[in-house]
Amino acid sequence: MLPFSRVAIIGMGLIGSSLARAVRQAMPTVRLTVSDGDAAVRARVLALDLADDVTDNAGAAVVDADLVILAVPVGAMGAVAAEIAGELAPGAIVSDVGSVKERVLTDLVAGLPGVIVIPAHPVAGTEKSGPDAGFANLFTDRWCILTPPPGVDDWQVARLGDFWRALGAKVETMEAAHHDRVLAVTSHLPHLIAYSIVGTASDLETVTRSEVIKYSAGGFRDFTRIAASDPVMWRDVFLNNRDAVLETLGRFTEDLVALQRAIRWGEGDTLEALFTRTRAIRRGIIDEGQDTEEPDFGRKH
Ligand code: NAP
Description:
Elements: E1 6-10, H1 14-26, E2 31-35, H2 39-47, E3 53-55, H3 58-62, E4 67-70, H4 77-84, E5 93-96, H5 102-111, E6 116-117, E7 120-122, E8 143-146, H6 154-166, E9 170-173, H7 176-203, H8 209-214, H9 220-226, H10 231-240, H11 242-264, H12 268-287
Parallel strand pairs: 1-2, 1-4, 2-3, 4-5, 5-6, 8-9
Antiparallel strand pairs: 7-8
Helix pairs in contact: 4-5, 7-9, 7-11
NADP nicotinamide-adenine-dinucleotide phosphate (NAP) binds at residues 11-16, 36-38, 41, 71-74, 76, 79-80, 97-99, 122, 125-126, 129-130, 230, 233.
């Protein structure tokens, strides 16, 4: 039996539309209602046949849903909670897909008193935005992390886990604050570094911008992919996971200075030891199935 029969998704960007496609594919009998504030997005959702009902009103979308998933930027979760608070069906679970969890948990619990709130984060995505960028198997073999607050019934958490597993994801449960520390290292810091490197390269006086673009295959272009990620989404990630990001950034800055010193003093052993260790981490990621062995970052030539 399916864990939910009527699902509402608020926000039809990359993640919302991928979810809609995945639900359509894995659970064709689920009644799917979606909302988005942008008329052009709603038109694309209809043209792509991603849902049974499409509306511009988040409150109207959730009225009879037994699962509601907010797929909007982290900073917009509280406002959307206020829009749906008076419209939810009794017993409905409200979840989300936001990349930061502690702040979202606080905002949803405060905005939805008496409602079952179970935040979630599918650790899957691309640098693209909008409904045309989504795809049904985005979540296949990727982790989805659930961060329920204390007091939520275990069976409700298990039910949401079953939903994500039916979409192909692997499911883990952890405390929201811990999620934010882990993701600060694995996602937020790498994005910050990419934004910073691409910004620096475009500001250099000694190398022309056309040279940077022409010779980008030396490593730079892989940072540009990450640095092309949605500006609003990532602004909200850094504003809402400030403490964990600043702590990780502090450690990173120290380690970078140590590398600077090793280069200055010709300490080849230090450099080689680090690069050997990092190569093993890459091996571990491939062994875990979180990336492929294909050369050149999986590009098809
Ligand atoms: P996206 O493609 O840019 O879509 C954003 C969606 O949020 C759009 O439907 C947009 O509506 C809506 N939205 C934006 N501002 C809003 C506001 N103030 N109030 C209500 N709705 C608003 O972004 P996305 O990549 O799907 O990201 C959605 C969520 O997924 C974010 O919380 C993000 O942290 C999380 N996430 C992203 C990734 C990733 O790699 N991209 C991975 C995992 C989780 P309009 O159509 O009206 O603009």
